[in-house]
Structures are given as structure tokens and as C-alpha cells.
Amino acid sequence: MSQVVRYELRDGIGVITVDYPPVNALGRDVRAGLAEALRTGLADAGAQALVVIGAGRTFPAGADIREFGQPPQEPSLPEVIDAYERSEKLIVAAIHGTALGGGLEVALGCDYRVAVPSAKVGLPEVKLGILPGAGGTQRLPRLIGVKPALEMIVSGEHVPAPKAKELGIIDEIIDGDLLEGAIAYAKKLVADNAPRRPIRDMQVKLDNPNLFEEFEAGIAKKQRGFLAPFHCIKAVKAVVELPIEEGLKRERELFKELVDSPQSKAQRHVFFAEREVARVPGIDKNTPRREIKTAAVIGAGTMGGGIAMNFANAGIPVYIVDVSQEALDRGLAVVRRNYENSAKRGRITMEQVEQRMSLIRPTLSYDDLKEVDLVIEAVFENMELKKQIFARLDEVCKPGAILASNTSTLSIDEIASATKRPEDVIGMHFFSPANVMKLLENVRGAKTSNEVIATVMDLSKRIGKVGVLVGNCYGFVGNRMLHQRGAEAIALVNEGATPAQVDKVLTDFGFPMGQFAMSDLAGIDVGYRIRQERRKAGENVPPSWLDKLAEQGRLGQKTNAGVYRYEEGSRTPIPDPEVDRLIEEFRKEQGITPREISEQEILERCMYVMINEGAKILEEGIAQRSSDVDVVWIYGYGFPVYRGGPMFWADQVGLDKILEAIKGYHQRLGGAQWEPAPLLERLVKEGKGFGSL
Questions:
Q1: Domain around 171
Q2: Span 172-186, pLDDT tens digits
Q3: pTM above the 0.85 mark?
């Protein structure tokens, strides 16, 4: 018998146990073990029925995605599931933990399914750029109906066991010991002479002949650019158009198309990159952590309020400090409105709204922060103001409290210099809106202790963020690259492109919005303040027509006018002839004769300048891995997941091609941003990609 799957007879029921830690993934040995255990069970005259269960913390949680892209190894998962579905003996799947993807497909190959109340099931393959390839798209619609199956498969969301019972996926919820309950359930089925119930024999009915077209239209905007959701729809459509064997064959064809596609490779890269990002060299499970029971946020503005919500959502009491009662009231009103909007959408209850609001404690006094474990400063980008705040926190906060800044560009070391405890100072750069965006750039200062880093990386996960540890430099990883792209986008407009033309190239690439629409969303004044700070620091930051917009009070969406204009209550950018005139005047002042600029040039200049900067960031050790840069851009800036992040995408384009273009732009345009990064030159010379780092 296989070491990872065992068979035993218990009280007249054959028990097949998958024991392949940590998640019983359905790799080759598990598949072979399942097939062998089934043969043993069928040959066992003492076994009236069979139960399939997972040892450890879960039922088989899914396929072993490390096998994707490798030569197929027998037996295949569809073959194993087919054997279970055609079994002469009744089979019960006993689910705890998560039965996802191939795990749920195994359960669908059984006659009946039981689960503990905390279990979850789902077919999340779409999130890896593929579709269920072992019968999930053909069996689930037969079991629960086409529409609910479509919703599950196309969304990839996990379904809790009680909901799965309502849908008809789970037949019985087991409150006590799962194995004992499953054996008792199987014995009762045998005693009741219950029939075998292969899903392949179930009939499927389509009540709405336009369902597939309507469903496709309903996801068109949200899933723009993705292949997998639309292939999922095609696969489910085969359920109502083809017999089961032909439907399974169609599913495999669509699965193979996806698994071999650049999109799936990119999405699998992101899956692993997100898990890798939590691993910090020099920090392990033995590194001490500090307990975070209470927190505080300085500043009740948009960012401060959003940051406070993350702590309240995680059940952590959080003070919010501002200079006036009016500012506090205004900030808390926005927080309440956000929570109440979530309640209206059914995401939380009104009781939860009140619970979370009660955890956010407004105050005008720093003295209330004496015992907090963590303080996050979230005021606007002004170094002197931040240093004043940190000097005050240094006086007030208890020893061992972590002092963090939400700065998006400024030096953590300089901020830390205002304190007598630089080892306790770290950057925690949230992204706007802070209660929604998943990225948290955690910025290590020169003296930040490993204990503080370990604590903040763990805390990131606790408050629902993807924490990425980065080094200290201007703009860190995300904004340092973004500002190069932003400067290039402005230069392209100066030379003759329109803001709308630049934005269209970026949205066609897959970004949710373009550079200038994003500036309007963030606020034109944000970038203006940053440029002014850099000018004060003696940097040569050239004048910009965006500065003129800020000085005229065109601050973006919040004033209904920025680079674009906005109808009252609308976020749709509308090109504005007034801005076109302002840009024309700026060109004349600067002596620029506008020219036609191609979409290809816009794409190359906006993207390749980022790749070059990313290579410099890696060389300087500001990011630990190229995949960390990808995670920053996917979760912080809306880089299309199906392209895998900027550094992964660069490898797909070809670093030799990118380097050649960068050299061409350096020759034509000059500028430090176009000086080829030595790392990029070295990788090309060695025939390697960023993925090799």
C-alpha cells in the first residue's frame, strides 16, 4: 500500500485515508495511492461501503501545482476520479479543512459527501488562470444546477460547509468526530439500501436559454483581459450541449489551452510569489515577536481613517489622533459611512458596524498613547512635520512600542533620527484606499530591529494585508518605479501625446486606470507636494504643467477637475479642452514643437523605464527578490495579474529586446532614468532573466 494513502477496515466500512502533509495535495503518489486503495477496498469482502478522508488538517486541498507544465504522470486525476465514480461499492467523502479544486473533484467522484461545519469547498482554479480539469465543470452543474455552478466556478470563491449543504454539494454536516460520523453515515446508507449515486448519471436542466450570454456580459468588465473565466463558461456550456464523455473531453481541451497559456504561467507565478514574500532572510519562527494588543494612528484623514479600519476589522482597539475635534469628527464620519456602505451590500451586519466603530477611539491627546503597542503616523508628506511627531511619540510611548510611518516616499532613517530608539522605527506604507488595498510595503530602516520586522510582517497578515519587506530609499519599491513612469508619461505629453492617449495605452495593457486618471484619484496636490519637497531638498525636478493644475486648484476627483473633468458624483474622466490649452501654453513656454507619438512608443517608454528602475532596485538590495517587486505592483498598483508583475512580464518580452530599446531611448532622450541598469546588462549577457535571481 502507498505510504501516502492507507486502507483499513473499520466496523464493516473500508476507510481510505490520504496522509500527505501539509495539505494532502493530489500529486502522483497520492493519485496512485487512491487508485490502489480503491482496488483494495473493492476486493475486501468485509467492506460494505467506503469512506475517503484526509489525515492531518484537511481533506485533499487540491492538485499539486508544482506538477503543472511537467510531463504527465500516470494515473491522471480524471482517471482516478472516474474509477471512484464507477465503483461497485457506495463511497462517502468525509471533508474537513478545505476541499478545493482537485480535492472537491475527488469528492464529486464519490456518491455522497459529509463535512464538518468549519469545512470549505470550492473550485478556485480560475485564480491560477486555469479551469477545473478533472470533471469539476461537468459534474458540479449536474449536482447543483447550472447557474450556481457557474457562479462558483467563474468566481473561484470558497463555499462554507453550511452553504454547500444548502446548494446540495454536501449531504450531511457532522458535528462530532468526522471519521466516526462518516462511518456511521455510510452504515446507515447501507442499512437503508441507499443507491449508488454517480453524478455522471444525473440530468441537467437549463431554465434560461440565455444564461451563458447573460453571465458572460455580467463579468465582461470585471474580468477584462482574463482568459480563464470565459473558458470556464465554455466548459460549463458543454454540460448542456454534450454527453458526459464528450463534455469531459471538451473540459480537458479547454484546460490544456489554459495551462499552456502565458496567462496561467503568470498567475501561477503570482500564487507562489505571494507566499514567498513572507519569507525574510535572517528572520524565522525563532525570531522574537512583540505582542500587538492596541494600536494608534496619527491623522484622521482619508489614509488615517482607512488604516484605523484595518485594526478595528481585526478586533484590535485603535486610537485615532488629530489636532482638532472637527478633524476627528469628519474622519470618523467617513469611517462610519464606509462601514455602513459595506453593511448595505451585505458584507457585514449593522451589529458589526457598531462593534468596529467602538474599537476606534478618537482623541486629541498624545498622552492617551502611553500604553499602545504600535503607532502609525499618517500625516501628509512633510519631513519636518513627521520628525516633530516622532520626537513627541518618542517622549510619550512606552519602551518597546513600535513607531511606524505611513510615508510613501520619505527616508525612514531620517524620520527615525528624531527618536532615541531608531531600532523601533519602521515604515508601514499603506495604499489608498487603505481599508481596501491589499499591499503593505514595510520599510526596513538601517537600524530597525529584526524583532520589529518580524512583528510587523506577522501583523500585516493579521490585518488582512500582503506585507512586503523593502529597503529604505526615495519612494521605496512601488513609488520609486511609479514616479519614473509618471515622469515619462508627462514627458510624452510634453512631446505631443495627450493624457487620454497615454492612459488608453496603459488601460489597454490591463491596468485598471491610466497614469493621469490615477493622479486625479490620488489628488494632484499629493504629487505636487512630493515634487515641492524634492525641490526643497535641492533635487533638479523640472517644472510641469501638473504643477499649474495644482496651483489653479484643479486637484482631481475631489474638486471635479484635474487632468480630466468629472461630472458631479461621477468618477468617469472626461478630457478637458481647458487642460489641452494649458498643455499647449506649457509647450510654447518650454520651446517644444509637438509631434505624433505612437502607442508602441508610449507603451515602451512607460513600461521599460519601470523595468530599468526595478533592475536598479534589485541591484541595490531594496527588494529581496524580483517576485517581491511583482507582488508590490500587483497588489498596490493594479498591474494585471494575468501578466504576472513587471519583472515577470519583462522576462516574457525578453530582456535583450528591452535592453536594446532602453539603450536607444538613452541615446535619443538622455537622462539617468534611461541609463541601462548594470544588472539588466549582466542578465542579458548571461542569457538569464529576473526569475533566475
A1: 5-260
A2: 999 999 999 999 999
A3: yes
